[in-house]
Amino acid sequence: MSYVSSTVARVIDQINRSYFLPAIQRPYVWQPDQIIALFDSLLKGYPISSFLFWEIRREHRSDWEIYKFIENFRYGDTHNEMAEPDGRDLILVLDGQQRLTSLLIGLRGSFTVRTKYGRRNNPDAWSRQRLYIDLLKDPAFDDVQDRDTDDLGITYGLRFAEDEPHSDADHLWMKVGHILDCTSDNAFYALADGMLAKLSPDTPLLRKRVLEKNLDRLYRAIWRDEVIAYYTEKDQSYDRVLDIFIRANDGGTKLSKSDLLLSMITSKWEGVSARQEIYDFVDHLNSGLDARNEIDKDFVMKSCLVLSDLDQRYKVGNFTTVNLKLIEKNWRAIKASLDATLRLVNRFGIDRETLTSVNALLPIAYYLYRTNCGSLDGSTPFEAENAKRIHQWLLGSLLNGVFGGSSDQTIGTARTVIQESLQGGREFPNGALVRGLASRGRITAFDDNNIDGVLEIAYGKRNCFLAASLLYDSVNWGSTQYHIDHIIPRSFADRKALMARNIPETRIQQILESVDKLGNLELLLGRENLEKTNTPFPHWIRTRDSDFLERHLIPNEPDIWDVAALPEFVAARERLISQRLRRLNLGPSASGVSSAVSQTEVGALGN
């Protein structure tokens, strides 16, 4: 293997002209401080490691999807723009994408970041920044107070900023990208003279020398020093190149399985850009529905295996050519089922904030895929009943951690149960799933062994909404603006206020430990909660309908509706909650697959 060396300027000039990225490459992930560290290394004359390129012959150009390097990066964006290979000398970068993209951003582009606490969908929360250098910062003078990246040992005055930082007697800022205008020594001398002219006439000679030295170092690092050492692979075998790619990237940012599998699918599917299809579909699931979700490529690709009745284990060996053809054939139906699944659980009020295991969605997606019954958003008895079955089963699975840890066997068992159950009817087989998973030690239903764990879920926990929604028959929490409300207002459990009522310290501690428990929480419409605010519960309940107490499982014992009796109130309500959880029949107690709902289940669902 023989390496060739080139300058940064020459390589940058070829990016998005001859140098592109293959579909196999992962998205850009570097942070601004990493870009600064890279440029600091260049200015110090440090090596920045080698690069691996792949030269594509003209007759093979159309065999590969190619992507452009990102020049203006927006933090959180993960997609590179596709490029057409026609009429190009095509070199694909197998190793070095992060470094080359960082050089491109620092010299010719920008890095857009979101301000702290800014909302993603607020345009004013984003700041498009470019890389600047302080030419008066002496790298030999280690000014700790002047360094934002002390841990990285940055000594040159590099900084990302939206606008050029203010220059004064101690600082003279220049956009780093201006050095690309220095296509000759004369152009460099002109730039140097122009920067010197910006200094005050009484600037000390030492300061001028620092400026000249920094500018000269930047010029040489970009235009003169051949710091880009690269090897060009010319073999056209995809398998060989894939193996080289895996080995070359082993020490960098670890490849996810989806990075490798996307490249395989892209090379096998016909008439469709697999990478773009899956990226766009993930974006749709996360941002294109009524609620925000957090689904990744790995979940979508694992779903392809599960829904296609293939080995559900997510490993490269399961994505054979034959399996990929089957997945391609099923892709439209897989997309429709995953879309319907996310719409359904979003309607339950479950989204990226409350979904504690995405794998729990796979049995639901498989059921919808096999029955082709959409997202069950209609009002027919079949849709209403099966939406309720799925809702209660999903809550039981999430709250009991059924799909936690290594869940491949659990997923396989659930799929087998659904396959067998659908031979006798189209209902969601929650009862059969409960029994089938229990035989594997995965408990979904509620009994004396796990009810206490649900009752211990407190306000502010990620699974608090899941536990609270289990107390109600309604499944449409996603279509309403709801709040998790403290029945006995939290503001009343104030230590000073309780002490003023001469309540003993031990009792105060019991009250404080009770206020955030599930037994003191309910789901209220946002409007209702705002109306309630700090109103004492005995006063506020007079404004509610006669079924309010029963609907919210609140004990009809006015004597304990006061904060001083909060431990007794919580204990009484926990008894009601426990009774409901025990009555929750997650499926028919008989064989479990007939279309008729048993009387036991009807009674349970009505409570």
What are the main properties of this structure?
seven-stranded mixed beta sheet; disordered C terminus; single chain; alpha+beta; flat; five-stranded mixed beta sheet; 607 residues
Average pLDDT taken over every residue: 87
Helix content: 40-55%
Shape: flat
Give the amount of beta strand, in percent.
5-15%
- Across the major sheet, the strand order is 1-12-3-7-2-4-6
End-to-end distance, in Å? 74 Å
Cα radius of gyration in angstroms: 31 Å
Overview of this structure, please?
The chain has helices at residues 8-14, 32-44, 97-108, 185-197, 205-224, 238-248, 257-268, 274-287, 297-307, 321-347, 361-371, 381-399, 408-421, 430-438, 451-455, 464-469, 495-500, 505-514, 526-532, 537-540, 548-551, 566-583, 599-605; strands at residues 4-6, 19-22, 51-56, 66-67, 72-74, 82-83, 90-95, 110-114, 126-134, 158-161, 173-175, 228-233, 482-486, 521-525. By secondary structure, the chain is an alpha+beta fold. The strands form 3 sheets. The chain has a 7-stranded mixed beta sheet with strand order 1-12-3-7-2-4-6. Strands 5, 8, 9, 10 and 11 form a 5-stranded mixed beta sheet that branches. Strands 13-14 form a two-stranded antiparallel ribbon. The N and C termini lie far apart (74 Å).
Helix/strand layout:
Layout: E1 4-6, H1 8-14, E2 19-22, H2 32-44, E3 51-56, E4 66-67, E5 72-74, E6 82-83, E7 90-95, H3 97-108, E8 110-114, E9 126-134, E10 158-161, E11 173-175, H4 185-197, H5 205-224, E12 228-233, H6 238-248, H7 257-268, H8 274-287, H9 297-307, H10 321-347, H11 361-371, H12 381-399, H13 408-421, H14 430-438, H15 451-455, H16 464-469, E13 482-486, H17 495-500, H18 505-514, E14 521-525, H19 526-532, H20 537-540, H21 548-551, H22 566-583, H23 599-605
Parallel strand pairs: 2-7, 3-12, 5-8
Antiparallel strand pairs: 1-12, 2-4, 3-7, 4-6, 8-9, 9-10, 9-11, 13-14
